[in-house]
Amino acid sequence: MDISAGVDDAVVDPAALRRAFAAFATGVTVVTVGGRTPHGMTANAFTSVSLDPPLLLVCVDREAVMHRHLVAAGSFAVSVLAADQEHVARHFADRRRPLGAAQFDVVDWRPGRLTGAPLITGALASFECALWRDYEGGDHTIFVGRLLSAEKLHEEDAVLFLHGRFRQITPMPSGVVR
Ligand SMILES: Cc1cc2nc3c(=O)[nH]c(=O)nc-3n(C[C@H](O)[C@H](O)[C@H](O)COP(=O)(O)O)c2cc1C
Protein backbone atom coordinates (compact mmCIF):
# COMPACT_ATOMS: atom_id res chain seq x y z
CA MET A 1 0.00 0.00 0.00
CA ASP A 2 1.44 3.36 -1.03
CA ILE A 3 0.66 5.71 1.85
CA SER A 4 2.44 8.62 0.18
CA ALA A 5 -0.57 8.94 -2.18
CA GLY A 6 -2.22 11.49 0.13
CA VAL A 7 -4.80 11.67 2.87
CA ASP A 8 -8.56 11.64 2.88
CA ASP A 9 -10.41 14.99 2.84
CA ALA A 10 -11.88 14.34 6.31
CA VAL A 11 -8.38 14.36 7.80
CA VAL A 12 -7.53 17.84 6.56
CA ASP A 13 -10.96 19.30 7.41
CA PRO A 14 -10.80 20.01 11.18
CA ALA A 15 -14.60 20.03 11.55
CA ALA A 16 -14.96 16.65 9.83
CA LEU A 17 -12.08 15.21 11.84
CA ARG A 18 -13.58 16.53 15.09
CA ARG A 19 -16.92 14.85 14.20
CA ALA A 20 -15.19 11.53 13.54
CA PHE A 21 -13.20 11.68 16.78
CA ALA A 22 -16.42 12.58 18.63
CA ALA A 23 -17.89 9.16 17.79
CA PHE A 24 -15.67 7.71 20.53
CA ALA A 25 -17.69 7.92 23.77
CA THR A 26 -15.69 9.03 26.80
CA GLY A 27 -16.13 9.94 30.42
CA VAL A 28 -15.42 13.52 31.46
CA THR A 29 -12.78 14.73 33.91
CA VAL A 30 -11.59 17.97 35.46
CA VAL A 31 -7.80 18.30 35.44
CA THR A 32 -6.55 20.63 38.19
CA VAL A 33 -3.30 22.12 39.45
CA GLY A 34 -2.76 23.69 42.87
CA GLY A 35 -0.40 26.33 44.16
CA ARG A 36 -0.88 30.06 44.43
CA THR A 37 -2.96 30.24 41.23
CA PRO A 38 -4.92 27.01 41.10
CA HIS A 39 -6.52 26.13 37.78
CA GLY A 40 -9.03 23.60 36.46
CA MET A 41 -9.93 22.46 32.96
CA THR A 42 -12.50 20.01 31.64
CA ALA A 43 -10.80 17.19 29.72
CA ASN A 44 -12.02 13.99 28.08
CA ALA A 45 -8.61 13.18 26.55
CA PHE A 46 -7.80 11.12 29.65
CA THR A 47 -6.51 7.54 29.61
CA SER A 48 -5.18 5.08 32.11
CA VAL A 49 -1.76 4.01 30.84
CA SER A 50 0.10 1.60 33.12
CA LEU A 51 -0.22 -0.26 36.42
CA ASP A 52 3.54 -0.76 36.94
CA PRO A 53 4.63 1.93 37.17
CA PRO A 54 1.20 3.51 37.78
CA LEU A 55 0.68 6.06 35.00
CA LEU A 56 -2.16 7.99 33.35
CA LEU A 57 -2.24 10.60 30.61
CA VAL A 58 -4.12 13.73 29.68
CA CYS A 59 -3.83 15.67 26.42
CA VAL A 60 -3.88 19.45 26.85
CA ASP A 61 -4.20 22.06 24.11
CA ARG A 62 -0.96 24.04 23.86
CA GLU A 63 -3.09 27.23 23.82
CA ALA A 64 -5.00 26.35 27.01
CA VAL A 65 -4.25 28.30 30.18
CA MET A 66 -3.91 24.87 31.81
CA HIS A 67 -0.89 24.08 29.66
CA ARG A 68 1.46 26.57 31.29
CA HIS A 69 0.02 25.94 34.77
CA LEU A 70 0.61 22.21 34.49
CA VAL A 71 4.19 22.62 33.24
CA ALA A 72 4.93 25.14 36.02
CA ALA A 73 3.35 23.05 38.80
CA GLY A 74 4.98 19.74 37.82
CA SER A 75 2.00 17.94 39.37
CA PHE A 76 -1.73 17.70 38.76
CA ALA A 77 -4.93 15.97 39.77
CA VAL A 78 -7.80 14.43 37.81
CA SER A 79 -11.41 14.19 39.06
CA VAL A 80 -13.73 11.83 37.14
CA LEU A 81 -17.17 13.44 36.99
CA ALA A 82 -20.42 11.76 38.02
CA ALA A 83 -23.67 11.81 36.02
CA ASP A 84 -25.00 14.77 38.04
CA GLN A 85 -21.88 16.91 37.40
CA GLU A 86 -22.49 18.07 33.82
CA HIS A 87 -22.62 21.64 35.16
CA VAL A 88 -19.12 21.19 36.58
CA ALA A 89 -17.86 20.00 33.18
CA ARG A 90 -19.49 23.00 31.49
CA HIS A 91 -18.01 25.41 34.04
CA PHE A 92 -14.40 24.25 33.64
CA ALA A 93 -14.76 24.27 29.85
CA ASP A 94 -16.07 27.86 29.82
CA ARG A 95 -13.37 30.33 28.80
CA ARG A 96 -15.31 33.14 30.55
CA ARG A 97 -14.93 31.63 34.02
CA PRO A 98 -12.74 33.58 36.44
CA LEU A 99 -9.08 32.61 36.69
CA GLY A 100 -7.29 31.52 39.85
CA ALA A 101 -8.97 30.37 43.05
CA ALA A 102 -12.26 32.15 42.20
CA GLN A 103 -13.09 29.60 39.49
CA PHE A 104 -13.51 27.01 42.26
CA ASP A 105 -16.08 29.07 44.18
CA VAL A 106 -18.99 27.37 42.36
CA VAL A 107 -17.97 23.81 43.28
CA ASP A 108 -17.16 21.96 46.47
CA TRP A 109 -13.58 20.76 46.52
CA ARG A 110 -10.74 19.83 48.83
CA PRO A 111 -7.01 20.16 48.29
CA GLY A 112 -5.24 16.93 47.37
CA ARG A 113 -3.06 15.76 50.24
CA LEU A 114 0.02 15.17 48.08
CA THR A 115 -0.19 17.90 45.42
CA GLY A 116 -2.55 20.54 46.84
CA ALA A 117 -4.45 20.38 43.52
CA PRO A 118 -8.22 20.76 43.98
CA LEU A 119 -10.20 17.49 44.03
CA ILE A 120 -13.85 17.97 43.05
CA THR A 121 -16.33 16.77 45.69
CA GLY A 122 -18.81 14.23 44.33
CA ALA A 123 -16.40 12.93 41.67
CA LEU A 124 -16.44 9.17 41.09
CA ALA A 125 -12.67 8.90 41.40
CA SER A 126 -9.74 11.19 41.89
CA PHE A 127 -6.07 10.85 41.07
CA GLU A 128 -3.03 12.89 42.08
CA CYS A 129 0.05 12.74 39.88
CA ALA A 130 3.59 13.98 39.56
CA LEU A 131 4.32 15.00 35.99
CA TRP A 132 6.41 12.07 34.68
CA ARG A 133 6.94 12.76 30.94
CA ASP A 134 5.48 15.05 28.30
CA TYR A 135 5.29 14.32 24.62
CA GLU A 136 4.62 16.61 21.70
CA GLY A 137 1.24 15.81 20.20
CA GLY A 138 0.69 18.41 17.50
CA ASP A 139 -1.48 21.21 18.84
CA HIS A 140 -1.74 19.32 22.16
CA THR A 141 0.84 18.04 24.63
CA ILE A 142 0.48 14.53 26.03
CA PHE A 143 1.19 14.79 29.75
CA VAL A 144 1.90 11.49 31.46
CA GLY A 145 1.48 11.54 35.23
CA ARG A 146 2.98 9.09 37.73
CA LEU A 147 0.28 8.37 40.27
CA LEU A 148 0.77 9.53 43.85
CA SER A 149 -2.79 8.72 44.94
CA ALA A 150 -5.85 7.05 43.46
CA GLU A 151 -9.24 6.95 45.12
CA LYS A 152 -12.49 5.46 43.92
CA LEU A 153 -15.08 7.45 45.82
CA HIS A 154 -18.55 6.63 44.47
CA GLU A 155 -20.35 3.87 42.56
CA GLU A 156 -22.79 6.11 40.68
CA ASP A 157 -22.89 6.51 36.90
CA ALA A 158 -20.48 8.80 35.08
CA VAL A 159 -21.35 11.69 32.81
CA LEU A 160 -20.47 10.76 29.22
CA PHE A 161 -19.48 12.79 26.18
CA LEU A 162 -20.43 11.51 22.72
CA HIS A 163 -20.99 13.27 19.39
CA GLY A 164 -20.26 16.61 21.06
CA ARG A 165 -23.01 16.20 23.69
CA PHE A 166 -23.15 15.26 27.34
CA ARG A 167 -25.03 11.99 27.88
CA GLN A 168 -26.21 9.67 30.60
CA ILE A 169 -25.58 5.96 30.68
CA THR A 170 -28.42 3.65 29.69
CA PRO A 171 -27.50 0.16 30.91
CA MET A 172 -27.59 -2.69 28.35
CA PRO A 173 -30.27 -5.28 29.18
CA SER A 174 -27.63 -8.00 28.81
CA GLY A 175 -26.05 -6.82 32.07
CA VAL A 176 -22.65 -7.23 33.65
CA VAL A 177 -19.42 -8.30 31.89
CA ARG A 178 -17.00 -10.11 34.19
C1 LIG B 1 -16.38 17.55 27.25
C2 LIG B 1 -15.16 18.39 27.01
C3 LIG B 1 -13.92 17.77 26.95
C4 LIG B 1 -12.76 18.53 26.74
N1 LIG B 1 -11.56 17.89 26.70
C5 LIG B 1 -10.41 18.59 26.53
C6 LIG B 1 -9.16 17.93 26.56
O1 LIG B 1 -9.07 16.72 26.75
N2 LIG B 1 -8.04 18.69 26.39
C7 LIG B 1 -8.10 20.04 26.20
O2 LIG B 1 -7.03 20.67 26.04
N3 LIG B 1 -9.29 20.71 26.17
C8 LIG B 1 -10.44 20.01 26.35
N4 LIG B 1 -11.66 20.65 26.36
C9 LIG B 1 -11.69 22.10 26.18
C10 LIG B 1 -11.31 22.87 27.45
O3 LIG B 1 -12.03 22.40 28.58
C11 LIG B 1 -11.64 24.39 27.28
O4 LIG B 1 -11.03 24.86 26.10
C12 LIG B 1 -11.22 25.19 28.49
O5 LIG B 1 -11.84 26.46 28.44
C13 LIG B 1 -9.71 25.40 28.54
O6 LIG B 1 -9.43 26.06 29.74
P1 LIG B 1 -8.16 26.96 30.01
O7 LIG B 1 -7.68 27.53 28.69
O8 LIG B 1 -8.66 28.02 30.95
O9 LIG B 1 -7.14 26.07 30.66
C14 LIG B 1 -12.84 19.94 26.56
C15 LIG B 1 -14.10 20.55 26.62
C16 LIG B 1 -15.23 19.79 26.86
C17 LIG B 1 -16.58 20.47 26.93
UniProtKB/TrEMBL annotation:
Flavin reductase like domain mapped to chain residues: 21-168
Pfam families given in the database record: Flavin_Reduct
GO MF entry, a single one: riboflavin reductase (NADPH) activity
Stored InterPro entries: Flavin_Rdtase-like_dom (IPR002563), NADH-dep_flavin_reductase (IPR050268), Split_barrel_FMN-bd (IPR012349)
UniProt-listed Gene3D superfamilies: Electron Transport, Fmn-binding Protein, Chain A
One GO process term, biological-process aspect: pyrimidine nucleobase catabolic process
The organism's place on the tree of life at top rank: Bacteria
Keyword check for Ribosomal protein: no
Signal peptide interval: none
Key words of the record: Oxidoreductase
Protein name as annotated: NADH-FMN oxidoreductase RutF, flavin reductase (DIM6/NTAB) family
Native source species: Micromonospora matsumotoense
